[in-house]
Amino acid sequence: MKLEGTMKIGPEGHLWIGGCDTVALARRFGTPLFVYDEAYLRARIRAFHDAFATTGLRYEVAYAAKAFCALAMCQLVQEEGCALDVVSGGELYTALAAGFPPERIHMHGNNKTMAEIEYGIESGIGAFVVDNFTELEMVEEAAHRLGRTVDVLLRVAPGVEAHTHEFISTGQQDSKFGFDRATGQARQAMARVRELNHLRCIGLHAHIGSQIFETEGFIAAIERMAEVYEEGVRMGLPLAVLNVGGGFGIRYTDEDDPLPIRQYVEAIAGAVKSAFTARGLAIPAVWVEPGRSIAGPAGITLYTVGTQKVIPGVRNYVAVDGGMTDNPRYALYGAKYEAVLANRAHEAADEVWTVAGKCCESGDILIRDARLAPPRPGDILAVFGTGAYNYAMISHYNRIPHAAVVFVRDGKTALVVERETWADVARFDRPLRYEAEGETAAVGGAIR
Ligand SMILES: Cc1ncc(COP(=O)(O)O)c(C=O)c1O
Ligand SMILES: N[C@@H](CCCC[NH3+])C(=O)O
Prior knowledge:
InterPro entries: Ala_racemase/Decarboxylase_C (IPR009006), DAP_deCOOHase_LysA (IPR002986), De-COase2_C (IPR022643), De-COase2_N (IPR022644), Orn/DAP/Arg_de-COase (IPR000183), PLP-binding_barrel (IPR029066). This protein is α/β, with parallel strands linked by helices. It has two domains: about 10-35 and about 295-420, Lyase, Ornithine Decarboxylase, Chain A, domain 1; about 40-295, Alpha-Beta Barrel (TIM Barrel), CATH 3.20.20. Helices cover about 30% and strands about 25% of the residues. The chain is globular.
């Protein structure tokens, strides 16, 4: 167990975070509960700014909202000088509701709907990251119809294999994302965007994957992107931005050995400077889109321990009151986590227990073979490093209500997402009743 940010173990043996006793938090807000260490969130963002400040580059740190999107998080990242990467109308809606300046938002997505494109244009977002030829025409058509000129970046699949789980690797050629570089699609897209009257291609984008522990992949991608960029400049595109995506790895367990943020940024800056200088190109503004590396280590999840099943010689199971609904990452990627009994954090973790959830699914595991002190019903279990892609991927499987989210700072708490009730889970259900002839029910595809 490695305590990050403001986490510590108090004299009574409880886990503390943000100056708050996690046992008291669990009692007050219930469990499962996501708890974010606000000071640490801010510190992680500042690490990106501090690192970029020494490079002399023009840059943008666009927080990838997909990692954890909520009003309070959008407010916080704005206060810390971030831009924002959104991938859906829902994320854009949340950001705008939080008062995020639209011109500092850019929108991703490999299948943006026309409704999302129109919403983005009408809201005045800074740029679309166009993913494919279909979308190129859709954005042009919408911009034409709405009488606007829209800034776009083209997402390129650079053909770089990131060393990470296949499901979260995105820069390889065989990917649903982006214009393929190797087969000339990126060049064709640049040629096409030049012909479109309502689009201004201000940059190129590549994101090679997530949870990456080395810099080689970024450097290789930047070298390839510089080549594409040069072609774009020769075609006369007003390119000024190279967005190299996110993907900076974090520590979940001892097996993970992430680089300091500074080291990723220095490698990226160095690669951009040398690749662009070598080609006689002006150095572009560099954008990054970190999600996990900002939100992940600053969040923990608190659960209440429930039942146990000990199978002698096979395995010890202990179940908690959440599971794959609030953290599907073991089920999806075989992800690993560390945990501690938060009410007895000073006790030796000398037993091995597999922490299961409460869903009707054998794969509903949070941690396989966790090292814990002997768990008892009513204990509070804290799982570390759950700030990214946990609440963000929450589900209603088994009609389990969504957990609450609280921010903590200097002994104070802010409930930023309320816990759902059983009634909330069922609130959009309607009894089975067919429409009478001529009756028009108030339903449809509208989501705005
Ligand atoms: C385009 C894009 N940008 C940024 C991110 C954020 O990645 P991470 O959370 O690993 O920093 C992702 C997710 O992998 C992504 O697909
Ligand atoms: N959801 C993934 C990351 C996806 C990144 C988005 N492209 C995870 O939990 O690791």
